[in-house]
Amino acid sequence: MAHELSSTTSLSHFCQKLNRLKTLEESTTERSLRHHLTMLDLILLGMGTTGSVGLYVLVGTVAKEMAGPAVLVSFGVAAVASLLGALCYAEFGVRVPGRGSAYLFTYVSMGELWAFLVGWNTILGYLIGVAAVARVWSSYVDAIFSHRIRSFTMAHVGSWQVLFLAQYPDFLAAGVILLASALVSYGVGVSSWLNRTFSAINLVVILFIIILGFMLARPHNWSAEEGGFAPFGFSGIIDGAATCFIAFQGFGAIAASSMEAQNPKRAVPIAIAISLGLAAGTNILVSAALTFMVPWRSLDPDLALTDAFNQRGYSWAGFIVAAGAICAMNTFLLRTVIFLPRMVHAMAADGLFFQVFTYMHPQTLVPIVGIMVFGVLVAFLALLLDFKALVQFMSISALLNSTIVATSIVMLRIHKSPPSSFLGSASPVGTEQASAPEPGKLRPALRPYPSFPGGYRPGAAVAWALGVLVASAITLDCMLVFGGSALHLPPWGHTLLLLLSSVVFLLSLRFLGAHQQQRRENAFQVPMVPLTPALSILLNVFLMMHLSYLNWLSSSIWLLIGLVVYFGYGIWHSKENQRELPGLTATCGGLEEMV
User: Fold this and answer.
1) Which residues pair with 432 in a beta bridge?
2) Count of domains in the chain?
3) Farthest CA pair distance, the chain
4) 580 occurs within a structural domain
């Protein structure tokens, strides 16, 4: 009997480990980095993280291979999906100030395993993103020198034709990543100064592209003779939107830097809104100008903007665009090369990743080990992997993280968390209303409906309803994207599943909306919860369904590796696990005495 009771207790405790919430603490490093970023710094940070990806990395590939001139609609759809996610990031950035972005947000609301998977997925996204931008940076530099660098490398090093690998090793792309890693090792001040300089140059070049591009516009390039405005149809537009989603992820960097912001409760939401609006506007206008200038079929995916001006006989303009692209991508590289190691540092500081990555340089206060290790790793990816393969792998991590953050917002607002796991009424960024009802309970007017949750422990009904909402959203999106033919369903079966998943989604949404929520004064909160995060989940999953199987395969392999790391190391070395050990020992001793 004692053995059976002990086994049951151990299994129950192991399951609780997976969902334990983070106890927020303020480290000495975080205190020393506080309050030096203005709202302008945050806006430039957001633009610097996204401006180069959409304009110089994605627009040519999406226009030529996915959407045609309708690439501007793809950017618009991606911007709407990003706006829904940005609202969730903004609330978390204000309420949970600190480093770690979606990882930290998930840790304080959903639990440890989910947080690790989000952090691990974020690492993959930034590894691929930095490598892809470095490849494009190399292409623009090579274009300035009339492709002599590529010709020299292929002549003296060689070339190959292997799936997912580049035609030739890109030593220039690897070199710029190593150079960026060396620069950020000198501290935040250097990269912040360079960020402002490069962002200003990039803004001037973007205005130049838009003005001259529309002056050279040929409306005939959108005509039916050239394939029309949307040659790949609605499916192509959505495929492009799924890829373009990564172009609007600068708000994640803003939220992650909230600890360093002056007046974060005001600066973070405004900076996120402005940077997202600027990114959407510039991407749409530049896409329109590009496809007006030249036929979309003739675009060079690697050098779309420079190549378009060259085709129109404005080679001098192509040099200006190349210079602006290089400056914009320098900003992206500097910001992400420092953010990636800090993401790893946050996980290592929580005990979920190897402790060697917690070391901070005593003078510059940067995670020097993470910068060196991941700088070399990203340089290796940029050296060998093909640009198109990198672009294919970029968006799924951002979409998945945005989905989990939207789910976390519902849990945070409706499911009452333990007081020790979250910054409560003492938080400097917001104060709970003294008379506010307890979150997670049915509203007084709706308590007779429904009556079945009464037998559950507090918050369990909310968690189950949220799980049903996510499952129904996935089912509904599968029905919309793949239809009955792809799933080999009869028409009546497809219609039935479509209606059933829609009804379950709406009922789950209604049930979650019937519960009391946490309310805070003088702090930004996502409007219309749970409707806004539910729409974010639905749209994100819809876009993910349009990504290729290679996206899903690579992400699945990466997540499997992450699970091995977590269950082999993280779950046992977690800081939360160390806090539980004394209490667990005392509890087990008491159980043995009772038995």
Assistant:
1) 520
2) 1
3) 88
4) no
